[in-house]
Design brief:
Radius of gyration of chain B: 28 Å
CATH topology of the largest domain in chain A: Nucleotidyltransferase, domain 5
CATH superfamily of the largest domain in chain A: ATPase, nucleotide binding domain
Radius of gyration of chain A: 25 Å
Number of helices of chain A: 10
Strand content of chain B: under 5%
Helix content of chain B: over 70%
Number of domains of chain A: 3
Order of helices and strands of chain B: EEEHHHHHHHHHHHHH
Oligomer: heterodimer
Largest sheet of chain B: 2 strands, antiparallel
Structural class of chain B: mainly alpha
Helix content of chain A: 10-25%
Largest sheet of chain A: 7 strands, mixed
Number of strands of chain B: 3
Distance between the termini of chain A: 57 Å
Shape of chain A: globular
Strand content of chain A: 35-45%
Shape of chain B: flat
Strand order of the largest sheet of chain B: 2-3
Distance between the termini of chain B: 64 Å
């Protein structure tokens, strides 16, 4: 069978489980994976005003195997193994980020290796995905992205054999935006709200639009409600019915407060905290004049939509602006084909951890480079000249420089300039110049790293 | 005006060796640099099938490769090849490209003998003395062959200038006897005061002042003028030598200094001065020391 790149995958990874939504060319809608290759229709099925997806699409991040000669098993299959005979490793993702190691069947194994095996096995569950080379794009959605998460995902992708250029990394909030954005545009008439209730914590994310900007900027406002934690854990003497009543009342108060302040048209509920029948008064209130969806795989689905339409929002004049987004355009003054040009190194709207660029240039005259900065909401450009101190003396046009932008933090990027010399004609030195570039709105100048 | 030029391609993993300058190049920018600064060396030994293959296999410039192949089939001039290579990279300005192309046109209109001679002269400027001697020797060998067949391609003055420059190349390598012989032939052919002067100077370097005096008696120039210029020449050479020795000593001393940056050196000096002040204060306060 001919192997084609035709799979677009959304992969949610969190502390307890993974969820996969995929789209194969020819399908009408993305579908979410249920363990052992069963799939469940991911589209919302209407049930009056409260619509939800019932299927369990979660794959617990647990791994085990019978012996070194047996294949790895994950999720339910691993859970099914006899606990007395076989050791199981749980919570792979948070432990892999910490680079933990553990003893398994008499050997020390790294959690990164185990999580890699987990991801590999979980991808094998996707029907008709014969080889990872058939994956055109895969988007990982995690709670929070930082450099260690990025490094972990990159490391795993290299081992599995998926080129990094086909991988996208987003946080849950961005996945939610992608999910909402992929829905019909009427969803955007008013604000969209997502309640996630998991392990005693309720979080509310509201997507709000700033239509004064072009493209329209969408921001995610998030708030965590601690009341539910104290309700669930606070007083064990109280009967369940009383706790449920209090939860209903508390949730009612929260939504009442939100509805009074904001124009909400769509509400999404997710997380196992909403299981059971405790929502009564709040349910009636929430379903009044709002469309409410309940699902478990918003993030995986959103990630799958991101894989399908990586640049779609920008094209349609809408830009998600979360906390990971860069608020600055930084361009390098260059001569390209005899014409002056500004080549963007950092672009507004990209995630800070994706800012990995490099180019090679020839220095024409004095040892400096010029960068143009433009901040979001500002029309004026600012030009900064970066001096390369103690630069080796060479004739004109005989110094080749490598310019790299390296992700550093959500506030700053590192600009590294390395001297490459000019082949054997003018040998390279080991000199490197580094500068810190602010990538958020408040510009305090470029910091030279000595 | 932008201070940077965007490089067209990444550097090649495997370099292209340019024998005429004895160096490897790794990029199109380096190739253009060679074209611009060593224009006289552009010939079929540089622009050939191997260069085209390198451009294709190492720099992945398919379009340029196809164009160069096409030019090769058409038997295009070197100027055309260089023109397309310059166009594909944009390393030099239009004016610089124009200068190179004009020069190529000029040298393409010269006889092969003149071209080779110019290459030899360039190699001397580039301090590649042995390569220059080899090239001049080839030229003179060719001259002998052609003369034996009755063909006289080059002018007498041009041949004299080859002998003169070959002498200079030998002198730079420290072969003063060979150098003096070349200069003698040169001045016998061109009867130039300059060649004669160099001949006498090198004779003294090779065989001493007596030999020089003997040769001086036989040359057809005004002896006093020759002697004065020669004295000046020897004096200048002596000063140069002294300067070179001094520089070498300085470098030796520099090399013995610890390898620290100027900034660290100044900081250390400042610190030492501060410590000296503290020491004095301490001594005056305590009366110790």
């Amino acid at each position: 069978m001919e192997k084609q790149e035709k799979f677009y995958i959304g992969y949610e990874l969190n502390n307890r489980y993974a969820q996969i939504t995929y789209f194969r060319e020819g399908m009408k809608e993305p579908v979410s994976l249920k363990e052992k290759g069963l799939v469940v229709e991911a589209t919302e099925k209407s049930r009056e005003t409260l619509q939800h997806t019932q299927a369990n699409t979660r794959i617990e991040t647990v791994i085990s195997r019978e012996s070194a000669n047996h294949p790895w098993v994950i999720g339910n299959e691993a859970e099914a193994l006899n606990s007395h005979r076989f050791m199981k490793i749980y919570h792979l993702y948070p432990r892999a980020i910490k680079k933990e190691e553990c003893e398994f069947q008499g050997k020390t194994v790294s959690l990164v290796d185990l999580l890699t095996e987990f991801v590999k096995e979980s991808l094998r569950m996707i029907p008709e995905l014969l080889d990872v080379s058939m994956i055109r794009r895969i988007t990982f959605s995690v709670e929070k992205v930082d450099l260690s998460v990025r490094f972990l995902i990159k490391q795993m992708m290299e081992r599995i054999g998926i080129p990094w250029k086909r991988v996208i990394l987003v946080d849950h909030k961005e996945s939610f935006f992608c999910f909402v954005f992929a829905k019909k545009m009427d969803i955007w008439n008013q604000e969209v709200c997502h309640f996630e209730y998991q392990q005693g914590v309720m979080k509310c994310t509201i997507l709000e639009k700033d239509e004064s900007m072009k493209p329209v900027i969408v921001r995610a406002r998030e708030k965590a409600y601690q009341q539910f934690t104290s309700l669930e854990l606070g007083d064990y003497k109280e009967p369940d019915s009383v706790v449920e009543l209090k939860k209903d009342e508390t949730f009612y108060e929260i939504i009442d407060d939100i509805f009074k302040k904001r124009n909400i048209s769509y509400i999404f509920l997710s997380g196992d905290g909403f299981d059971g029948e405790w929502m009564k008064k709040s349910r009636n209130y929430i379903c009044r004049n709002h469309k409410v969806y309940r699902g478990t795989n918003l993030y995986a689905k959103g990630a799958c939509y991101r894989s399908l339409f990586p640049q779609e929002e920008g094209r349609l004049g809408c830009l998600y602006f979360g906390e990971n987004k860069v608020q600055i355009n930084a361009g390098l003054h260059l001569e390209v084909g005899g014409k002056e040009e500004i080549r963007h190194l950092i672009s507004i709207g990209e995630n800070w951890f994706d800012m990995e660029r490099e180019c090679e240039v020839i220095l024409k005259r004095e040892p400096y480079i010029e960068l143009t900065f433009q901040f979001i909401e500002e029309k004026e450009e600012r030009v900064e000249r970066l001096q390369l101190e103690d630069f080796p003396v060479r004739p004109k046009n005989t110094s080749r420089l490598k310019i790299q932008v390296i992700p550093y933090s959500s506030e700053q990027a590192k600009l590294r300039i390395s001297d490459l010399g000019f082949g054997e004609l003018f040998p390279r030195t080991e000199k490197v110049w580094e500068f810190m570039i602010p990538i958020k709105k408040y510009f305090r100048g470029i910091q030279d790293i000595k | 005006m932008a201070n940077l030029i965007l490089c067209s391609r990444k550097r090649a993993a495997h370099p292209f060796y340019i024998s005429s300058i004895g160096k490897n190049i790794y990029s199109m920018e380096e190739l253009c640099y060679v074209f611009f600064h060593h224009t006289i060396l552009i010939d079929e030994t540089l622009i050939n099938e191997n260069l085209c293959e390198w451009i294709y296999q190492e720099l992945y410039m398919d379009k340029l490769y196809e164009k160069l192949k096409e030019l090769s089939l058409e038997g295009a001039s070197l100027k055309m090849f260089v023109h397309y290579i310059f166009q594909s990279v944009q390393y030099c300005t239009e004016k610089e490209c124009g200068q190179v192309l004009d020069y190529i046109e000029k040298i393409e209109s010269m006889s092969s003998w003149e071209r080779q001679k110019l290459r030899g002269d360039f190699l001397i400027q580039d301090r590649q003395f042995q390569a220059a001697i080899d090239l001049y020797s080839d030229l003179l060998e060719r001259r002998r062959e052609q003369r034996s067949r009755g063909i006289v391609e080059e002018a007498k003055m041009l041949t004299a200038s080859v002998f003169h420059n070959m002498g200079v190349a030998y002198a730079n390598l420290g072969f003063f006897s060979e150098a003096a012989m070349c200069l003698k032939t040169a001045y016998q052919m061109n009867e130039s005061f300059e060649s004669c002067l160099e001949f006498l100077y090198l004779t003294e370097k090779a065989e001493g002042p007596i030999a020089r005096e003997k040769e001086m008696a036989e040359v057809p120039f005004d002896e006093s003028q020759l002697r004065m210029t020669l004295e000046q020449r020897l004096e200048t050479a002596k000063k140069k030598m002294e300067n070179a020795v001094e520089q070498r000593e300085k470098k030796k001393q520099e090399a013995q200094k610890p390898a620290i940056s100027k900034r660290v050196w100044e900081e250390r000096k400042e610190l030492q001065e501060k410590i000296e002040v503290w020491k004095q204060e301490f001594r005056s306060m305590t009366g110790i020391g």
